[in-house]
Structure formats: C-alpha cells, structure tokens
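Hypothesis: this fold can be encoded by more than one sequence.
Test: take the structure tokens below, design a sequence, compare later.
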C-alpha cells in the first residue's frame, strides 16, 4: 500500500512540533528548578554569612570585655592579697583591730572618727578592698551574662578563674573531714555566702547605661558614717572578722575549730593563682610573707592540703 509523502509530512511536522513544545516545557521546568536551587543557596549563604558576622561581633565583644576587666581584676586582687599578707605577717598587732568589731563600727559616726583612729582606718580599708573585689566579680558576671556560653576557651577560663576565687568563701569542700565549731556555723566555717558576696559587691556599684562605676574609698568612708542600711550590708564581713584568731594548727586539736584563719590563707592562695594566670604584664607585685606561712600551714595540716587539691581539681583543673 503506497502512502503519500504529502500525507506523512504534516504528521511528522506535528510530531516534531510536539517534541519542541515538550522540550520547551522541560527546559522551562529545569530553569525554574535551577533558579530555585540557586536562590536557596543564596539564601542559605546569606544566613551563614549573617550568622558568622554575628558570631564575630559576639566574639569581639567578649574579647573586649575580657581585655577591659582583666587588669582591674588583677589589680584589685593584688591589693586584697597584699592586705591579707599584712594580716598574716603582723597578726599579733592586726588581730587586735578586729576585737569587738560590732561596737567599734557602730561608734564610727563621722569621717573624723575614721581619720583619728588607725584601727578604724584599717577596718574600713579592708572592708572596702573586699567589697571592691566582689564588685569587680559582679561586673564580670553581668557583662558576660549569656555571652559566656559562646566564649572561646580562654575567656571561659578567665571567667571561671575569677569566680573560683570567691567560691572559697561559700564552698563546703575546703573544711571536709574537719569538726567545725557549730555555735555559729556560718561564722566559724568562714563563710561569706554567694548572695552576701553579691550584696557586698553591688553595695558600692552603680550603673549608668552600659557603664559601671565603683565607689571610691572616700565615698565609702563617708557613706559608712551616715547610712545605716549601707553599714548593714557589711554584716557578713563583720561576722567573718570579728574577734578573728590566729589558728596555726587545726588538725591536732581535740576541740571544734574556727576555720576563718584557714580561709584567709586559702583566699590569698587563689588570688595569687588568678594573678599568675591572667597577668601578662608582669606589673603586679604580690608580697611574699603569706606564701611562706601558707606553705608551712598546709604542710602541717594534711587534711587541708588534700581539700585544697580537691578544690583545685573542681574549679581549676576542669578549665
């Protein structure tokens, strides 16, 4: 049967036209699909770039905070360490200043009372140094906030080292296995509880916008003579120091012990560790007498030495 070419050609043309149409539809689909993929990649890249930019800004902010407060922190640590050195080195003279401290503080009614008494100057100065150190710790806590979760290891270490120094005062681990005098548990454990530390720090701290300001020693002395509520904020320090005794050996005695003297040595020890870890300037001078006393003390009191090592593992070696 003979098929006419004139009849086939239109069919072939229609077929190829259909193919061309399908090809156009397919090409359009591919182009749309490719365009969507390209747009998706662009969006993901933009999100990734934005995320990296935010992380960089956050990292720079954290680094700025660390640099901003590392020097004030170790300078206040230096002054407080050296004041504790003075207490230990010259305890026979200095401990007299803490006898009947409640009566002494309640009698300070003017700046003149402070300036005319070596005892009053000494007591107000040590209270101020403690409060100022706690204030620096509070600033660091507030500034880091949730940022510490995204911090690099060096910054996390800086934050933990700073916090560990004050943990000396509220941790129970340092007097483990020792029988503490429980007639006034907080006092004879040498505790300044964490909330009390915050109160002490914030009592001399003010904030305007994003700027923190620590009260000067002059303002502190002026306020302590006139503001009863302000004076009451320092009750934890008053309890800690009132009638403080030199206790050279707490393990051989059969009596329940006053742990406050040991806490002074512990605190000075961790202040020194902090300075050694953070100070890159070698401009900090820590007086040495307390180091000599501390070594003798921990050598004589083995339980304390073991507790010290456990505390370091928890707060320092885990960094």
């Amino acid at each position: 049967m003979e098929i006419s070419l004139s009849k086939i050609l239109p069919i072939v043309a229609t077929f190829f036209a259909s193919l061309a149409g399908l090809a156009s539809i397919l090409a359009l689909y591919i182009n749309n699909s490719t365009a969507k993929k390209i747009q998706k990649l662009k969006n993901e890249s933009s999100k990734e770039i934005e995320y990296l930019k935010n992380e960089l800004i956050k990292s720079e902010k954290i680094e700025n905070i660390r640099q901003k407060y590392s020097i004030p922190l170790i300078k206040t640590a230096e002054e407080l360490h050296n004041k504790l050195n003075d207490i230990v080195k010259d305890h026979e003279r200095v401990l007299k200043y803490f006898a009947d401290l409640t009566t002494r503080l309640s009698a300070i009614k003017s700046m003149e009372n402070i300036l005319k008494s070596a005892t009053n100057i000494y007591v107000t100065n040590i209270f101020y140094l403690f409060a100022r150190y706690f204030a620096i710790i509070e600033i660091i806590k507030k500034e880091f906030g949730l940022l510490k979760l995204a911090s690099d290891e060096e910054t996390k270490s800086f934050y933990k080292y700073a916090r560990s120094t004050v943990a000396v005062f509220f941790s129970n681990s340092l007097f483990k296995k020792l029988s503490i005098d429980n007639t006034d548990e907080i006092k004879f454990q040498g505790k300044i509880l964490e909330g009390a530390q915050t109160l002490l720090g914030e009592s001399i701290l003010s904030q305007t916008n994003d700027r923190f300001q620590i009260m000067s020693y002059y303002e502190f002395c002026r306020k302590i003579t006139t503001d009863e509520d302000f004076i009451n904020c320092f009750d934890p320090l008053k309890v800690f120091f009132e009638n403080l005794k030199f206790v050279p050996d707490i393990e051989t005695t059969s009596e329940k012990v006053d742990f406050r003297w040991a806490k002074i040595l512990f605190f000075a020890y961790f202040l020194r560790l902090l300075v050694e870890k953070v100070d890159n300037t070698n401009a900090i001078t820590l007086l040495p007498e307390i180091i000599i006393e501390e070594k003798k003390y921990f050598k004589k009191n083995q339980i304390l030495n073991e507790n010290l090592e456990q505390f370091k593992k928890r707060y320092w070696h885990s960094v």
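Residues 74-147+166-317 form one domain. The chain has a mean pLDDT of 81.
Hypothesis status: open.
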